[in-house]
Amino acid sequence: MFTYYLKLGARNLRRNPALTALMVLTLAIGVAASVATLTILHVMSGDPLPHKSSRLVVPAFDVGTLDRWTPGTPADDDQHTYRDAMNLLAGGQGERRTALMGVAGPLQPERRDLPPFDVDGGGATRDVFAMFEIPFRFGQAWSAADDKAGADVIVLTRKLSEKLYGDANPVGRRVRFSGFDFVITGVMEHWDPVPRFYRVLGMGAFDREDEFFLPLASAVRHELRNNGSTWCNKPFGAGYQAFLDSECTWLQVWFELPSAADRPALQDWLNGYTAEQRRLGRLPRKAPVYLYDLPEWLVHLKVVGNDNRLSAWLALGFLALCLVNTIGLLLAKFSVRASEVGVRRALGATRGDIFRQFLTESAVIGLAGGVLGLLLAFGALALISLQSKELALVAHMDWLMLAATFAMAVGAAVLAGLLPTWRACQVTPALQLKSQ
């Protein structure tokens, strides 16, 4: 019977094509506006590593001075000093741990047809690859010995590798970066997490991707400056070593725990570490230690702002307005078919039969609106992606939002059709037959 109602609904849509087209277009515009906005919000607020995000945690404690500080106010920065970062890594907590900094500089290709160009990347410990599940196309991460020695080794992204060497495997070759020769140990497969959670403070959640990784110890040995957020709350002496010894915060530290249940143990260890540092004359603010897992970290940094949520609510409000218009159009469409309903009722159709027939017809309108709305949403996302590189990262639709588009369109049409369908069921057969 449903198939019959479906065919009947499709046939009835052709009886008044202008009114049908207006309903489909109204619904499609509302769905497209909502889906385009919700798609961006969905991508921006996504969990990059949902299967382990509760085990990836970020510690944060305040190293600021008492000058111009009001108790209870947030820390100046959620990053760490070099001293603290090295101590946290040496503490051996968790399954894995890493510290990251930004690295930028000129790269001189071997190819004569390519002039030198600037690249942006990261300095990290080797655990960064396993911790964040970075895939490899060629080679592998550098060794633990390379980490310890600060060896001149490097891992390239696939995009940078193909720019330098085409499809060839470059592992073992040397690339000159910032005046130093680095041996390529691996090439990453495409890895572009959105949001870019691992170094939000240094590069932004929707900014450029790191084009390479090299050992943090190597970046420090070559005295490379941090390319990203650096906060110094008091002056320090001249020279790179003075910078390392200072209370400047510029490194992001991550821990991977065996399970989320191990989080209290890490919290206790961090509390003990900060208490020890206070005994050594540091951390005068005596602020608490915070520990954020990956989702909490993104919320803490306000990766998804209130403006984005407000835009989503406004888009849903626009969809509601389109629904009101669709209800009015369906009322007009169904009201002129009162005689048809009366004849069907006189021939034995129940109110339930009429209800299912007209509601199926509303669903057909919703399906047509969903197809058109999907096309309009793709067009809207394409236009949005042209505005900036940051928007291009989030203005794309996945399978979840694709399914949500049709569900929203059909659901909205069925919802809009409830009142007109109910009104159609109230037709009195005798009155309609008398009027014929």
UniProtKB/TrEMBL annotation:
Main localization, broad class: membrane
The answer, when asked if Transmembrane is one of the entry's keywords, is yes
Name of this chain's protein:
Putative ABC transport system permease protein
* Transmembrane regions: 21-44, 310-332, 364-387, 399-419
Cite a GO CC annotation.
Answer: plasma membrane
**Where located?**
Cell membrane
Give an example GO molecular function. transmembrane transporter activity
Sorted keywords for this record are: Cell membrane, Membrane, Transmembrane, Transmembrane helix
Q: Where is the MacB-like periplasmic core domain?
A: 20-270
Q: Which InterPro entries match?
A: ABC3_permease_C, MacB_PCD, Macrolide_Exporter_MacB
* PANTHER family associated with the record: ABC-TYPE MACROLIDE FAMILY EXPORT SYSTEM PERMEASE COMPONENT 2, MEMBRANE COMPONENT OF TRANSPORTER-RELATED
UniProt domain ABC3 transporter permease C-terminal: residue ranges:
315-428
Which topology term describes how it sits in the membrane?
Multi-pass membrane protein
